[in-house]
Amino acid sequence: MNTSSEDLGALFQGLVAVMEQLRGPLGCPWDREQTIESVAPFVLEEAYEVADAVASSRNENLCEELGDLLLQIVFIGTMAREKGLFDLGDVCRGITDKLIFRHPHIFGEMKADTSGEVIDLWDKMKKLEKQSSGVDQTPSALDGVRNSLPGLTYAFKLQKKAAKVGFDWSDHQGVVDKVIEEAEEIRESIATGSREDVEGEIGDLLFTAVNIARFMGVDPEGALRRSTDKFVKRFRIMEKAMKLDEREITAMGIDEMDIYWERAKSILASEKREFPAINPGEEIDS
Fold first, then answer.
1. 175 and 69, same structural domain?
2. Domain that holds residue 178
3. Are residues 243 and 268 in the same domain?
4. Rounded to a whole number, what is the distance in angstroms from the first to the last CA of the chain?
């Protein structure tokens, strides 16, 4: 709880040393086979685990989840050093320099007394960074949305940006009709197209579904999360019912499973959450 900066440095070096041993000639076969590309998805997964621990107020798990996330950073940093790209020292140096540069009211002569002024100053310093980096500064109505966001949130924010300049459907019914059209195109691509065609049509359907969510004032990421949580609850109730009947799910056909599934739906029906009425086009934050 009260680790000194010196001890913290030693602990971090210890973690790096363990990772280097795992990646070494006598290290772990699995760790040695990994690449930056293969490990990258785990970063997002572990970040979600951290967010879940925070949202669930499971403080006893938060420390462990932060460690798992830090591991992925060290893992990728170690592989980047092996490839001669950069090392973890460059990572620490870069973020430290960025924090100092973006806080001139603390480390420089500028002034910012409120949170609002700090945010304005932060944005100003970010623009200065981009100008000095040679990044294309051609303005776009879609600027400010990171493509590293989860897919549904990324689509949602881009659609909101486009809508603000008038590039939008006239009403929600047009989007509903578009969903039906996209679903039919999936059917056609499955029958006649390649896997790439099917993937493209599924992406179009999801993008259009996000548009409906935006029109109806629904957060698509939250909506999918709730539906997925509902599936998990029903499935677990179904499994418990099968266990009480001394049945094994792996030995049952889909028709029998459906009977248990409907029973689980009935059990959860009384717990159905009531959501407030929403108006098409209602603005929500995401």
1. no
2. 141-286
3. yes
4. 34
Q: How many domains does the chain have?
A: 3
Hunting for tokens 């029958």 — which residue is that? 191
- The mean pLDDT value for 59-71 works out to 92
For residue 101, give the H/E element and its range: helix 88-101
Whole-model pTM?
0.60
CATH code, domain with 217:
1.10.287.1080
Look at the chain and count its residues: 286
d(CA 88, CA 64): 21
Sign of CA dihedral 98, 103, 108, 109: positive
Mean pLDDT, residues 124-141: 76
User: How large is the C-alpha radius of gyration of the chain?
Assistant: 25
pLDDT band at 278 (very low <50, low <70, confident <90, very high): very low
Based on the domain organization, do 112 and 93 belong to the same domain? no
The reported pLDDT for the residue numbered 135 is 60
